[in-house]
Amino acid sequence: MPKLNMLFLSCAAALSLPVAADEVKHFQSFAGYTGLINTPNAEVMDSGVVDFGYNNQLDFQGQRYMDGHNFIVSAGLFEGFEVSGQVASNSMHDNMFYSEGRGQTRDLSFNAKYQIPYIPQDWLSVAIGMKDMGGAANNYKTIYAVASKELWDFRFSAGVGASDRKTGQMDGAFAGIEWQPFKWFSVLTEYDSEAVNAAARLTIPKEWLYDIGEITLTSRFYSNTELSEDTSNYWGINFTLPLSDELGYQQPVKAAPNVQNNTANVPVATKGAASINPDAVKIQTPNDYTLPTVKPEARTTAKITNNTEQQAELSQLNSQSVTLKLALVEDGFENVSVAFNNNNQLFVKFENSIFNRNDIDALGLVLGRVAELITLEGVEFSVQLNKYDLALLNVVGTVDNYKEFITNNISPDLLITLGAALEPNGLVWVGTTDTSSPYFKPRLTIAPTISNTYATELGVFDYSAAIRADLEVPLWQGGGIILGGQVNVANSDDYAENKPFKNYRKETQFDRALFYQTFELPFGFYNQTQVGYIKDFYDYRGISNETAWLSDAGRHKVSFKFGSFQYQDYRGSRSYQMFNYQYNWVEQDITLHAQAGDFWYEDSGYKLESRFWFGDSYLAVFFEDSSAQRAGAAISIPLSPRKDMSVTRFGQVKGNEAYRHSIGTQVGKSRNQLVFNQLYAPSSIVGLDKTFFNQGRLSSDYVYKHLPRLKEVYLKYR
């Protein structure tokens, strides 16, 4: 008790001192939240950072501590908020229906923690959190509040919690002290409401790991608890890394000074602003593109001189346009078209097949090339992004203004709209597009696919893994063919023949042969039809159709998709129809999704999902209500480099630019039963959202928000 009193008095005294502190790093605890050993502190994970952890201190059903397995994945969803999922188990593979596994635990739980904002940093930090929230069986349910204060190389934390666990952990007052004498070493001591614990933590910096992430090793070497089989040592290891390197290069763009345009002051768009004064850009209406009328006046020496200068400028613009087109083709872009007129207006159309993770990278490189290679003063440009000759997005501006953005980081004055740009009159096209045509060139996507379960009575992790190959061959405007299949590479025992999960195994099979046709319709509508063969346990032939509408700035997307397929070998059919809505909250890099309808396995219901984007990856939380209510989390990461290989006449090989993996648990019931393929509809490698809408980020507001990325990608790949 004297030790306990001294710990609390130290924390209370530290929390009351107004002394500025050196930075003390924060790490994950054994319990699934940022903290010490068993207790939290008031820090949270940085936004866009994920942590994969393992430790062997099993809190067995909240009754006692023993040697076991804890697998924890944690992530910072946005500033001040972290979530985590934890699997706790006595063993990895023991079957709990047999004698070998009777009496064991295997539990899946979710945790959340929020740091209270608006508290001055030199005061203290305060956070609230909950452990084991929302599931069917809440063995570790805990709520808590904690405050922390950093002084020199120390962080002092104290808080109060409520828990029903028999161990008494986090049920009452708790406190802890972290001492970090070196950036790579920390010593921890805490009182967790039941016992005093001590640990040491060693960090391997990311500089030693090729700047990918850092590894942390933790050893709990002391505890005075009487509820543990082994009081000498429990240990853990964590690997922490950012989801995107974009977090490191985003820099604020300077607001441009007011400029004069005739007699009016023109406001300039700044980072994150979607509005722009149309007067700032001349290319907007057909009247702007009409050639000037030449009156039959007497030719003078001055006029001849002016004509000579204009011809010289046009000759220079022609030469630079040729160079620009060759550079864009060399970069790997397809369907490149470049034109100009005698009003010093430049028009560029291109298709992106190399920056498959994000079309904004392609846009940034093309705009950078325009600013680099067009040196004639006063040139206005219009750059249009297409996909298989369907217009997606266009950017209008002036070359001189964009050069200021590249060289001085001053916000560019751009007009960005969805769809096709209005072509100026009198265009002179440079060359042909034959050499960069996208048609009849195969694109092969290779990626893993997996069926799996977590924390069931049969094992901690069961899986069936395959390597999938999908071949797309575009044939003409908006149309092409899709062929796909997979090869099984590995299965856990429970996915073997005559085992419980055999029906969900990833079999070696050819399962896609489809023809697709996409149309760009008026008023922001797009339509895609797919016809052909799919295999989903059985062989089906049929048709699917999706119609989508995008708002002017791309913030709202509404779509309806239906499919009807007939079983080939006997009378039987499958069908689905579903409505989807997406809101693109570009200021926070969040997309909100809602889906409802009738699905492939004759179930009906709805799904709500929030995606938190970090570069080209996202973390998602979702809730679905159908035959069962489920809640869970998902992660999507690119399994391809930022810039893929260029498409040659033989084709292209690439990885999956948006590989998604999810985990969920049943809620609202006393038992957590497995739910497979709920709210499922078959899909293919080509779709409106994935192929044409930049994974739901086809938005002018999105481009305005990510202006620094336009500059960064050009500087990296120029």
UniProtKB/TrEMBL annotation:
<dbReference type="InterPro" id="IPR010344">
    <property type="entry name" value="YbjH"/>
</dbReference>
<feature type="signal peptide">
    <location>
        <begin position="1"/>
        <end position="21"/>
    </location>
</feature>
<dbReference type="Pfam" id="PF06082">
    <property type="entry name" value="YjbH"/>
</dbReference>
<keyword id="KW-0732">Signal</keyword>
<protein>
    <submittedName>
        <fullName>YjbH domain-containing protein</fullName>
    </submittedName>
</protein>
